[in-house]
Amino acid sequence: MRINRLALLGLVATALATAGPITITFNGTGSGSLTSASSIRTFTDADFTFTFTSDTAALISPPPCCLPDTSTPSGTTAAYSIFGLGTGFFTQDQAVFTNPSELTAGIWHYNDADWLTIGSGAFDNTFHLASNLGPVSGIISNLNQSSFSTTGGTLSLSSVSALTFTETVSAGSPGGGVGAVPEPSTLAFLGLGLACVAAGRLRRKA
To answer: Residue ranges of the domains in the chain?
Structure first.
């Protein structure tokens, strides 16, 4: 009985540990515009921060379009802060991706065009958006190919410098937050453990 209980506790711990909140931050200096129905606000060499929050259990590997990639979901919660323009949220199909074959990571329209990409050897096939990393700097690309809808208007970038990528993975949240949601395979494993414990009890009663 004691062994079964210990095994069950181990299964539960494993299930909760398989998922955890992730925060991905892009910091840099850039120029561009934020266009709304009433105004066009431009910024030049302004410090910015783009912050994405998701969960390791929500990562998609691979997304439908791109076999080697791993990505956060379409519409990943994302905030921006641009010096001189203030703060707001992305409101479109924004997501963060990593491509180990190209050694890149960045922000993209999920399953579509890249928006801001940083290249570094740190984004190799050992990194899949599920571990702590950074800050990482590298080669910047894919500007001017697209824009994003935000709560402050349409955000476009024309130049970026000093870009860094940082990811922080937190422990799972047993209190019921997103970090406590195990992947389907883990749930199946947990169910199998519960079935084994139940079967053991039936054998003892017999």
So the answer is: 1-18+182-206, 20-181
